[in-house]
Specification:
Blueprint lengths: L1 H60 L7 H17 L2 H11 L7 H14 L7 H19 L4 E2 L2 E2 L2 H10 L3 H12 L1 H21 L6 H6 L6 H33 L8 E2 L22 H5 L4 H14 L7 H6 L18 E4 L6 E4 L6 H20 L14 H14 L3 H6 L11 H32 L7 H13 L1 E2 L15 H5 L5 H22 L12 H11 L7 H9 L6 H17 L12
Parallel strand pairs: 3-6
Antiparallel strand pairs: 1-2, 4-5
GO cellular component, one term: membrane
InterPro entries: Peptidase_M2 (IPR001548)
GO molecular function: metallopeptidase activity; peptidyl-dipeptidase activity
Length: 605
């Protein structure tokens, strides 16, 4: 009896072992098959991605009104890219492999999900719609970046417009300048409606409700979950924003010798969209513009690179300087360029470029550190452990967070003193410095998490009618920013479309709100746990330990779970607490300043 039992035990064990071996062999064969698919896909993808990047680069750096060559090249390159990434064969195979994801390596699964996500933007089943969308996007960009802004009949650059809004005390001049900055929207309204329809139709083909939901899904979230997170951010900063809003109404009324308004007239503010009010405060002893006035733009760029090298990153490749478009065009140039600062990872390898119009001022000093943050992020995750398909940020907000983090670090007094841009012994008004920072970082959240996010949600998910575009924009600006137009802005205008991202970086502006929350989490950790310094007065320069921490965050690219990476890096989930803690000392000062003043925003959001 025992022998028979033992025999059956042995038989069962041998059978189980054979089954296990067979299963392992089957899984190994599946993994090998999937890897071959991924390798073949990646080879073609990289080539087409590079072709598309080159066409887009040319179209952004050499804009000639009436010239159709750029449009033709973009159409050709992007249609080839779209045809491949959205092919029915790619979609079918990817879905088939993902059905067996439990038997695949996690890195393979991440790549397959990336492929399917890209396919949803270009599905072959609606190739005619994809082609129409590409054509429409090219036309919208040409209209936007080729627009001739004018004041009193004279052509001006967006840099000229921004300078007037930052510096002028003449309300008539400010009004004329602000209205000029919005005039481009009229020409973009029909195109925006068309793009909305085409973008929605494109992603509908793979089961997404709308383009906004599609873009949000990249975070592993639903549209409503993202909106909830964004409104939560606004609610958390609202008490401080309400104090800043009240302070600004009274201070600006004094500045312009005008009656205190209930809501901030848009042309009173130093930014075209009211997203940054920091120019309202000058901190004595921290006059960076004065320190930079004799510097060349090239010096600004090199200083940015020196900082990253000082914390342990490699120097930029020579090709970066050879291929980038870093400086304003000559006044007599026969073409235009996109002046919006951006960083490009052209080939997902080592072709790194920046598109900017650097001038020797404080704004660009901060901006170069921000944009090089993107470049060094690209460089960090271009390594053998990150497949080309996963060479992106842990989420889209991470990329902006790293750029903004290094921009913040480069503007703190100890850092500036290290660089010789301020006197290390100069006494500055710390409260005014904190106020200036709040007018940048805090003021930005109601715009990004509120106005932009809710407008694009209405545009794509709720199919906002074209004859309500401007009404909705100003309704949201009043609700979230406490800002109103100088006068009635009817539906002949499309002021939302004057914002670049509405046209060509659609349904993703919450990325920037996420980035501001993340940057304060990273900064708080670096200041307290690495540098052992006050978060309000840090100096990252020369700290290899800071560099090592940043490399640990950057070098995995998108080959991770972004929530887990954040928790491992700073010890907590995404939270506005470090940002609120940073600005907590400002509340008492603002409440004192606003004593006896009338608040027009509600106490709670």
């Amino acid at each position: 009896m025992k022998k028979i039992t033992l025999f059956f035990i042995i038989l069962i064990s041998v059978t189980a072992c054979k089954k296990e071996t067979k299963t392992e062999d089957t899984n190994a064969a599946l993994k090998a098959e999937v890897q071959t698919f991924l390798d073949d896909y990646t080879t073609t993808f990289k080539k087409l991605y590079y072709d598309s990047s080159e066409a887009e680069w040319a179209a952004n750096t050499h804009i000639v009104v009436g010239d159709t060559l750029n449009a033709y090249n973009i159409q050709k390159a992007n249609e080839a890219y779209a045809k491949f990434t959205g092919s029915s064969d790619v979609i079918e195979k990817t879905r088939k492999y993902l059905e067996q994801k439990d038997n695949l390596d996690i890195v393979q699964v991440r790549q397959l999900k990336t492929i399917l996500y890209a396919a949803a933007n270009n599905p072959e089943t609606v190739s005619d719609v994809v082609s129409q969308r590409i054509t429409a996007e090219n036309a919208q960009n040409e209209t936007l970046f080729g627009y001739d802004f004018k004041i009193k009949g004279k052509s001006v650059s967006t840099g000229d417009i921004d300078k007037i809004l930052r510096e002028s005390n003449d309300l008539n001049s400010r009004l004329e300048t602000w209205e000029s900055s919005k005039a481009v929207g009229k020409n973009l309204k029909d195109g925006l409606e068309n793009l909305r329809n085409l973008r929605n139709q494109t992603v509908n083909a793979l089961g997404y409700d709308d383009y906004f939901s599609y873009q949000v899904s990249d975070y592993g979230m639903t549209r409503q979950e993202m909106r909830y997170e964004m409104n939560k951010m606004v609610k958390e900063v609202w008490p401080l924003y309400r104090e800043l809003h009240t302070w600004a109404r009274y201070e600006l009324a004094k500045k312009y010798n005008a009656k205190v308004p209930d809501y901030l007239p848009a042309h009173w503010l130093p930014n075209r969209w009211g997203q940054d009010w920091s120019a309202l405060v000058n901190v004595e002893g921290l006059d960076i513009d004065a320190a930079l006035k004799d510097k060349e733009p090239e010096w600004i760029v090199k200083e940015g690179e020196k900082f990253y090298v000082s914390i342990g990153f490699n120097p930029l490749p020579a090709s970066f300087y050879e291929k980038s478009s870093m400086y304003p065009l000559p006044a007599d140039a026969t073409y235009k360029k996109n002046n919006h600062a951006s960083a490009w990872h052209m080939d997902l390898e080592n072709d790194l470029r920046c598109l900017m119009s650097v001038e020797a001022n404080a704004d660009y000093y901060e901006t170069i550190h921000h944009e090089l943050g993107h470049i060094y992020y690209y460089q960090a995750y271009t390594n053998p452990n990150v497949p080309p398909l996963l060479r992106g940020g842990a989420n889209r907000g991470y990329h902006e967070a790293i750029g903004s983090l290094l921009g913040l670090a480069a503007m703190q007094k100890p850092f500036l003193a290290e660089k010789g841009l301020v006197d290390a012994n100069v006494q500055i008004d710390e409260t005014q410095n904190l106020l200036k920072e709040a007018l940048n970082y805090v003021v930005f959240l109601p715009f990004s998490a509120g106005v932009m996010t809710e407008f694009e949600n209405s545009l794509y998910a709720e199919n906002l009618p074209k004859d309500q575009f401007n009404q909705k924009w100003w309704e949201l600006a009043k609700k979230y920013q406490g800002m109103v137009p100088p006068s009635d802005r009817g539906e002949e205008f499309c002021d939302a479309a004057s914002k670049t991202h509405i046209n060509n970086d659609a349904a993703q502006y919450y990325d920037y709100a996420v980035s501001y929350i993340l940057l304060f989490q990273f900064h708080d950790h670096i200041a307290k746990n690495i540098l052992k310094q006050d978060p309000h007065a840090t100096n990252y320069y020369g700290s290899k330990e800071v560099g090592n921490f940043l490399k640990g965050v950057l070098e995995t690219g998108a080959n991770n779970d972004w929530r887990q990476l954040l928790k491992e890096s700073v010890g907590s989930e995404m939270s506005a607490k470090p940002m609120l803690d940073y600005f907590a000392p400002l509340m008492a000062y603002l409440k004192e300043q606003n004593k006896g003043r009338t608040y027009t925003l509600p106490e709670t959001f």
